[in-house]
Automatic annotation (TrEMBL):
<feature type="domain" description="ABC transporter">
    <location>
        <begin position="4"/>
        <end position="228"/>
    </location>
</feature>
<dbReference type="Pfam" id="PF00005">
    <property type="entry name" value="ABC_tran"/>
</dbReference>
<protein>
    <submittedName>
        <fullName>ABC-type nitrate/sulfonate/bicarbonate transport system, ATPase component</fullName>
    </submittedName>
</protein>
<dbReference type="InterPro" id="IPR017871">
    <property type="entry name" value="ABC_transporter-like_CS"/>
</dbReference>
<dbReference type="GO" id="GO:0005524">
    <property type="term" value="F:ATP binding"/>
</dbReference>
<dbReference type="InterPro" id="IPR050166">
    <property type="entry name" value="ABC_transporter_ATP-bind"/>
</dbReference>
<keyword id="KW-0547">Nucleotide-binding</keyword>
<dbReference type="InterPro" id="IPR003593">
    <property type="entry name" value="AAA+_ATPase"/>
</dbReference>
<dbReference type="GO" id="GO:0016887">
    <property type="term" value="F:ATP hydrolysis activity"/>
</dbReference>
<dbReference type="InterPro" id="IPR027417">
    <property type="entry name" value="P-loop_NTPase"/>
</dbReference>
<keyword id="KW-0813">Transport</keyword>
<keyword id="KW-0067">ATP-binding</keyword>
<dbReference type="InterPro" id="IPR003439">
    <property type="entry name" value="ABC_transporter-like_ATP-bd"/>
</dbReference>
Amino acid sequence: MSTLEIEQLSKSFGSQPILEQLQFHVKEGEFVSLLGPSGSGKSTIFHLIGGLYKPDYGSIRLNGNEISGQKGSISYMPQTPSLFPWRTILENVTLGVELFEKPDKEKAKKMLERAGLADYIDAYPHELSGGMRQRVAFIRSILSPQPFICLDEPFSALDEFTRLEMQKWLLSIWDEERPSVLFVTHNIEEAIFLSDRILVLGSKPAQVIKEFDIAFDRPRNGELTLTSEFLD
Ligand code: ADP
Ligand code: MG
């Protein structure tokens, strides 16, 4: 079981209120996307959920337990992924798992191969492009055994073709393992393609100003075709 309940979440930086009384829930096994303009506070929400920032007010509950200010309760891919420069790519993807269990190196290698990184398994982060590093950070987050995954613009640095491949991969993982996913993107097509539900944030301070249920039955596993039903 993995549910997230955000209630009355408030955060200011200096005199600037970024989040004020923000409220939303993610149900067990649900895929929810957060859309909103740049600077609206999406990454700040993720920093709070990931325990990197403490809220000024309000609560963040995972499966009923308060997790604000606690790191390591969820799997979290930040918008600017930080890889350890002195560790190989394989070590970088398995490091997160090591906190919980002995990493399955073969599985990690297969994932790197699937992401087009077969030649970079023993390379170091500086040898990779930004898009490659983004895929490494994505694999690190999906390898983590936690059932709640937060992904902050995970595919933003990828070309359209690679992005589609990664989207299909994420959906196939979601189909098989059914984690709860909270996904930030600027790309409305991506949000429609992937999500059960979309929350649109307005800014200053951030509030959920619109909420869409994706009403149609989303096609599965690589048989994905984009539909415009939602936009009518
Ligand atoms: P988004 O991810 O939606 O683009 P962010 O959450 O990164 O937005 O930023 C929301 C606002 O909070 C911006 O105005 C940003 O400048 C400000 N902000 C974010 N982090 C900090 C920080 N550590 N200190 C001061 N201001 C911050
Ligand atoms: Mg951001």
